[in-house]
Design a protein that fits this description.
Layout: H1 21-40, H2 47-60, H3 62-70, H4 74-84, H5 89-109, H6 113-132
Helix pairs in contact: 1-2, 2-3, 2-4, 3-4, 5-6
Length: about 140
Amino acid sequence: MSRPPVPDRDEAHPPIATRWRWAWWLLAYASLALGLVGVLLPGLPTVPFVLLAAFAAARGSRRLHGWLLAHRQFGPVIRDWDAYGAVSRRAKRLALTMMAACAVILFLTAPRWWMAAIGTAFMAAVGTWLWARPEPPPRPPSH
């Protein structure tokens, strides 16, 4: 007697381990909250927190993960990152512009020049890494 075939797993919805599900859920919602605050607060990034929220939601909340993937703004960014490790040129330019503005603010307001220099060095490293990311392939035109 042979065993029945094992159905293929749904790769888009892997099974969620119940032991740590609450921790992934908490990380997903906390990251999303920080990302949303980053929309309004200069210096606090949005995209890394949204990507972290999507990563954690895939392991802790199918509902939130589905919402993020279907979101008009966040969905394409998450799908491009998941599929290609890619960041759009527009997002790169916006991130670098915001980092440059924050560096100027740091140098104008920091009590010591070296404090601003350290923050600016970190932003320069992140900016270099970000610019080195590939760009997603062009999307087919929608009608």
